[in-house]
Design brief:
Blueprint (H helix, E strand, L loop, with lengths): L3 H10 L4 E11 L2 E15 L6 E15 L2 E12 L2 E3 L3 E6 L2 E2 L4 E6 L6 E6 L2 H13 L1 E7 L6 E7 L2 H21 L5
Antiparallel strand pairs: 1-2, 2-3, 3-4, 4-5, 4-9, 6-7, 6-10, 8-9, 10-11
Helix pairs in contact: 2-3
Length: about 180
């Protein structure tokens, strides 16, 4: 894996964007309870950072909390050189749409420099979850320092990672449906 600080140094010499992702199931009490998409993305930013190479590090997670309750969480930090910069907010970008309408909370994370944004499982978050698998990428919009515009950090997924994300989500949704009471 590329370390984010090393990637920042590499990007200072190369013009291209660098990114990496991992997909992992989340288990609790021996049962599948979520799907995690961990990402790192490094690129140049002209919006807040004057063309410098900056990175985003974080994860987008889908969770089943029991009793059919489902939600999502975005954890993201911005790295500027070797300094962590706390974003004001973050959301997933799906083409020309976002899941910002589904935000339920926005708070500073337990890990220094990370922002946690939670989302209800509404239409735009459901769209984001499907879009990730279909487009083989996640783009996270991050707003900094009271700004109104977001830096779009794109992380490409390999075909197998997109398939793993889709498989995890499908399995989780099947388990949720099976756990719901049926009408008799």
């Amino acid at each position: 894996m590329i370390g984010i600080v090393a990637a920042l140094a590499l990007l200072a010499q190369e013009p291209d964007r660098l990114s990496e992702a991992t997909v992992a199931p989340v288990f609790a009490e021996g049962r599948l309870r979520g799907c995690a998409l961990n990402f790192k993305s490094v690129q140049r930013d002209n919006l807040y950072f004057g063309g410098r190479a900056v990175g985003a590090d974080g994860s987008f997670n889908l969770y089943h909390f029991g009793d059919g309750q489902v939600g999502a969480m975005l954890k993201v930090a911005v790295l500027d050189g070797d300094a962590m910069r706390l974003p004001d907010t973050g959301y997933v970008i799906t083409g020309y749409e976002t899941n910002a309408d589904d935000v339920t909370s926005n708070m500073v994370g337990d890990d220094a420099g990370y922002r946690l944004t939670t989302f209800r499982f509404g239409e735009s978050t459901a769209e984001a979850i499907g879009y990730i698998a279909g487009s083989e990428m996640i783009t996270v919009g991050v707003q900094m320092g009271g700004g109104q515009s977001a830096i779009p950090f794109r992380t490409d997924l390999k075909e197998a990672q997109a398939a793993d994300w889709e498989r995890c989500v499908d399995t989780l949704i099947t388990d949720i449906r099976a756990s719901l009471p049926t009408d008799q």
